[in-house]
């Protein structure tokens, strides 16, 4: 697959500024120095200021994290290019006060040089406040040998560093304490990313993919740097194992950067980061597998952050970050895990900061819902038919009538619809007969029996018909329950008539079809309307007349509305859904309430 090379923009040369203007329009709590491309918060000099930045193309990092509880300023370079010294110096001047500033940037040569030089120039100027620079190096894909001189790259773990450091600054921490906490966090971070392909920079020539259709690259950077390995695309569970093993493995002298103990006492914060073009559906699956893997290794996950934090434009890939929390048994640690989590959970307001629960992840399989259901059980009531055996036999007759009518219903629907009406109704009828044979549908309490029929129809019929029948029977069951609660102990013609009318009203809440519409509601309403005055046999005859009349009607709803109406009239085909209702009520004949 070739990298996605289509983009929506006015001009590649103005894309960064255009994007930053849009960000400020979206967030009136921040300001924009367009000349130096600095996004900043006004009036932040009462605390230790936090700054970050770098090349653009990693949105929402870094400008999207300027806000309360996060960054005070972000300095934005061109796509994948460090901002220059003048830009950085302007950002420092805008937000630095007496308490000083801490610049937290990813370890890339350009960023290290430009941000470092700007900090030194500010300090030499004699202006108030000290300025310090911290380089984040959390990439575990880079070996010690590779990074002997330049060190490791900074990746998405950078977001956690400045979120935690900013919370301490908000609590009044001085520059030393904020810097020390940030340094400590960086020593306990590990990140690794994968890409299904590289991204494409707007305004550049589209390149050919260097990966086969079934390959991915492990150890991707965020500036289109090649990874360390090419792999056949595995199941996500296998990929998660490969990635997290590299972060947690302490036996690899080249990549053992994070001091995991592996004795069951390790606790972590997990960050799942979308590098730009992975669907939310996939991110959810990735997150679940990562948590499951950590649980299997007896590593306790204290917090989970999943979303889009630091992208590589439109790269189809993701990264995993683990922050190893301070060990409870390590008395030499200057911080506790609860302190770090408190800083991580502190309120923050910025467009790029995704929602987090502030809690440990839920446990899959907990029977919480069952407990809630048990606490809210409805009062059991019963409503008996006048004759249980006759009630069951009437249901059987209706089901068998539908099964026998399958060929004619299917043929009708082949002409008037999509050809599946007969099979759909047959499936529902067979499923109901099956629950009768199993003894689950007993004929002792019509409320339970009708509710069971509603469930069976929903599960086994499917499609629009299944939904309509299930809604009707659910409404019928509720109405029968209400009538039982009003003191009725046994079904009567009056009870069935009232419950059926109320069930039809429920159905009408969810369908716009009304007689005459050439749908199943035509004979259904005719049957229910006639039931109080004409009884079961008379109502069934009216249902037959209404079903037969659908031959002459123009379809206003249902599948027939999409078919040539003149052709339907010429062929004199009744609506198969309406004909199915007639077959059902015809089967009920002979049943006395």
TrEMBL record:
Annotated DhaL domain residues: 389-590
Family matches, as InterPro entries: DhaK_ATP, DhaK_dom, DhaL_dom, DhaL_dom_sf, Dihydroxyacetone_Kinase
Catalytic activity: D-glyceraldehyde + ATP = D-glyceraldehyde 3-phosphate + ADP + H(+); dihydroxyacetone + ATP = dihydroxyacetone phosphate + ADP + H(+)
Active site: 223
Function according to Swiss-Prot or TrEMBL: Catalyzes both the phosphorylation of dihydroxyacetone and of glyceraldehyde.
GO molecular function terms attached to this record: ATP binding; glycerone kinase activity; triokinase activity
Binding site for substrate: 55-58, 111
All residue ranges annotated as the DhaK domain in the record: 11-353
Pathway(s) annotated for this protein in UniProt: Polyol metabolism; glycerol fermentation; glycerone phosphate from glycerol (oxidative route): step 2/2
One Pfam family cited in the UniProt record for this chain: Dak1
Keyword Disulfide bond: no
Keyword annotations: ATP-binding, Glycerol metabolism, Kinase, Nucleotide-binding, Transferase
UniProt keyword Kinase present: yes
Protein name per UniProt: Dihydroxyacetone kinase
GO CC entries: cytosol
Similarity section: Belongs to the dihydroxyacetone kinase (DAK) family.
Organism of provenance: Kwoniella dendrophila CBS 6074
Record GO biological process: glycerol catabolic process
């Amino acid at each position: 697959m070739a990298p996605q090379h289509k983009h929506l923009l006015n001009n590649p040369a103005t894309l960064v500024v255009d994007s930053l203007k849009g960000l400020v329009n979206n967030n009136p709590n921040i300001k924009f120095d367009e000349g130096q491309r600095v996004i900043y918060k006004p009036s932040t000099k009462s605390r230790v200021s936090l700054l970050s930045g770098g090349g653009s193309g990693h949105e929402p990092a870094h400008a999207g994290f300027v806000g309360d509880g996060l960054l005070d300023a972000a300095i934005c370079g061109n796509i994948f290019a460090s901002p220059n010294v003048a830009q950085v110096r302007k950002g420092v001047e805008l937000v630095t006060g007496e308490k000083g500033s801490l610049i937290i940037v990813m370890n890339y040569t350009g960023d290290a040089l430009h941000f470092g030089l700007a900090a030194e120039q500010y300090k030499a100027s004699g202006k108030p406040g000290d300025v310090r620079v911290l380089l984040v190096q959390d990439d575990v894909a880079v070996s010690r040998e590779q990074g002997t001189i330049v060190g490791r790259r900074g990746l998405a773990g950078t977001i956690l560093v400045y979120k935690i450091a900013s919370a301490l600054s908000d609590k009044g921490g001085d520059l030393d304490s904020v810097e020390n906490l940030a340094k400590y966090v960086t020593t306990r971070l590990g990140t690794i990313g994968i890409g299904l392909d590289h991204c494409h920079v707007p305004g550049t020539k589209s390149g050919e993919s260097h990966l086969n259709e079934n390959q991915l690259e492990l150890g991707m950077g965020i500036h289109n740097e090649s990874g360390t390995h090419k792999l056949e695309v595995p199941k996500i569970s296998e990929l998660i194992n490969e990635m997290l093993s590299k972060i947690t493995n302490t036996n690899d002298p080249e990549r053992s950067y994070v001091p995991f103990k592996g004795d069951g006492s390790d606790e972590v914060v997990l960050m799942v980061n979308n590098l730009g073009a992975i669907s939310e559906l996939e991110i959810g699956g990735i997150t679940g597998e990562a948590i499951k893997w950590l649980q299997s290794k007896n590593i306790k996950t204290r917090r989970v952050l999943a979303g889009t934090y630091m992208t590589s434009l439109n790269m189809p890939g993701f990264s995993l970050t683990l922050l190893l929390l301070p060990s409870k048994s390590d008395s030499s640690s200057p911080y506790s895990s609860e302190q770090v989590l408190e800083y991580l959970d502190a309120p923050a307001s910025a467009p790029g900061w995704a929602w987090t629960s502030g809690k440990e992840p839920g446990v899959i399989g907990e029977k919480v819902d069952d407990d809630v259901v048990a606490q809210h059980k409805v009062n059991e009531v019963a409503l008996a038919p006048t004759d249980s055996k006759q009630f069951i036999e009437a249901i059987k007759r209706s089901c068998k009538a539908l099964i026998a009518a399958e060929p004619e219903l299917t043929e009708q629907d082949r002409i008037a619809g999509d050809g599946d009406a007969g099979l759909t109704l047959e499936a529902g009828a067979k499923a109901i007969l099956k629950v009768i044979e199993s003894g689950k549908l007993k004929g002792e309490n019509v409320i339970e029996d009708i509710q069971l029929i509603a469930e069976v129809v929903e599960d086994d019929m499917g499609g629009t018909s299944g939904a309509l029948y299930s809604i009707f029977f659910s409404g019928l069951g509720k109405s029968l329950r209400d009538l039982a609660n009003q003191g009725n102990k046994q079904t009567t013609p009056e009870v069935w008539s009232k419950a059926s009318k109320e069930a039809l009203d429920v159905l009408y809440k969810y369908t716009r079809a009304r007689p005459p519409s050439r749908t199943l509601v035509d004979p259904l309403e005719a049957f229910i309307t006639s039931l109080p005055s004409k009884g079961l046999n008379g109502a069934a005859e009216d249902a037959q007349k209404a079903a037969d009349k659908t031959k002459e009607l123009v379809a206003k709803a249902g599948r027939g509305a999409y078919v040539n109406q003149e052709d339907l009239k010429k062929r004199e085909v009744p609506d198969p859904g309406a004909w199915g209702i007639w077959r059902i009520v015809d089967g009920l004949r002979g049943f006395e309430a």
